[in-house]
Design goal:
- The complex is a heterodimer of chains A (293) and B (324).
- Chain A is mostly helical.
- Chain A is built from 11 helices and 2 strands, in the order ααααββααααααα.
- A two-stranded antiparallel ribbon of chain A has the order 1-2.
- In chain A, helix 2 packs across helix 9.
- The N and C termini of chain A lie far apart (49 Å).
- The two termini of chain B are 29 Å apart.
- In chain B, strands 1-2 form a two-stranded antiparallel ribbon.
- Chain B is globular.
- Classes of the chains: A mainly alpha (293), B mainly alpha (324).
- Chains A and B meet through helix 4, helix 9 and helix 11 of A and helix 5, helix 12 and helix 14 of B.
Amino acid sequence: MSDLPQLAVSTILLGGMYALIAVGLTLIFGVMRVVNFAHGEFLMLAMYLAFWAFSLLHFDPYLTLVVSLPLFFVVGWVSYRVVMRPIIHASHNVQVFTTVGLSIALQNVALVLWTADVRFVRTDYYAIVLRFGGAAFNIAQLVAFAIAVVFTAALFAFMRWSYTGKVMRATAQDRQASALMGIDTDRVYATTWAVGITCVGVAGVLLAPVYPVYPTAGLQFVLIAYVTVVLGGLGDMAGALIASLVVAAVEVIGSYVIGTAWKEVLYLLLFIAILVVRPAGLFGQRGAELLGT
Amino acid sequence: MRAIAPALVFFAVAGLAPLVVRDAFLLDGLILILMWGAAGAAWNIAGGYAGQVSLGHSAFFGLGAYAAALCGTRWQLSPWIGLLIGALVATATGFIIGYLSNRLRGPYFVLATIAFSQVLLIGASRWRGFTAGSEGIPVPFRPGFWTLGIADKRVWVWIVLTLAVLVYLVQLYLERSRRGYQLAAVREDEDAALSLGVPARRLKVAAIAVSAALTAACGALWAQYVGFVDPVYVFSVDLSVRFSLAAILGGLGTALGPFLGSVLVTTVETYLRARFGGIGAGLVGIYLILYGCALIVMVRFAPQGLVGWIGDRRRHRTAARATP
């Protein structure tokens, strides 16, 4: 029982990070009805950005964040224009394979440019451990969590109250009706994609001081993000938040009880179980997975 | 007859080539073309004909590879028996996956299959007592046909060719039989097919199971040919993408397509490996960048693949000739 505070703190810290990755993914799905299989690769690119800024320019990762935010918005916008826009109304398979193609290309651009070496961002404060009420945690984790929470809250506020956010939600609800109301859906998709990519752009920079980066680093995080997003109901942003805590809890408690070697199996099995039993997710509407358009 | 003429030529050339070609490098290339072609075609049975697009087919490939390797190293059995066991286990797994994910469509099905192959990947790399863990299994070379210890690459060409032709024939069956038409109906519009009394679920599950068995057979032969089974490779998402890539580039739901796709994919890869392997090993990744871009361009501009694109061309020409 004495480990309980530690488990709780670890869960919350981890959950905050997962939330930021998952929110971008679920936003893109909700509005565009596209599962972005290249989501992890954008995360990986952001981690590399933090790494190179740190090792070449001695930028602190939290300083890089200021650059990363607009940069990944632009990267998202451009990748939408070039890759996603032509296939936004195509069949599921075309969309799946387009993002898979994007993922392969980006992964190997990183491989060719920066080799397969595992790299770390070693900040001065990397090893500082805080203790609080029987729980110990790394300061980088805490800062990452705090920024992730602020950013996610800002995104929620943006979706809730800004005009653009309202337009995005309207398009998510009914793309035909919103087009009839004079909404420029193409612009909405571009914004959505760019905002989604910006989320991982921020998440990647925040993860860099905590996790090593290598060309396939995105996969492990994006798998978790898929689990989270499906659990919360694809397209449901609030669901994704709760689900990221659930997934983090499964991971933390799983590592504690059965060891770190098998923890991934736990959430993957949870994932398959959810897909089989209730593909709409815990909070999603039944039958959402059958919506074709 | 005319419809399968190109395939006859393709397989005849592949089968006769070893009589003329002695160069080990070229024969190795041919074996890989046939191997990835057969795996792509096996994927095509589920992904192309049944419309069950999976990115977890490496699960079946890995099961076959592990069955063959474990039979040889652990129980001193012939890899042929391993191939059979692998195919049986994969069929059973295919049934389970197909049955469980029957309701899932589009990206949901893709996600479920990815998750499944990842479970096997982690299982194979962590269950050290049984699978030797992430170090992988070196497959011992025991000379003889029964033990599949064959040094002569020409014999390998014929073995893999046999499997390739078998997968091709299964596809041909799907193109020409009542069951094949029913499956196409399910793929195009499941609700309409159901209303006509087509047993949609049973057909889809069967297609996945057959596809799984054939993919496992490829995996078993691959393990014996390469001589090493590495969990991170045989269960990887990359490998699943490779199967689907051959089928999509060549032509989704066409019998010869995956083999043509494999010719393209494998030659580019083998060339770049030979050219940049060793010192500039990182540059080998260039072919994967090309694949990624090719995939994006192909599904956008020629979703029917090479076979469909050539067919269109030809029809245009005949139409032009008919109306002067």
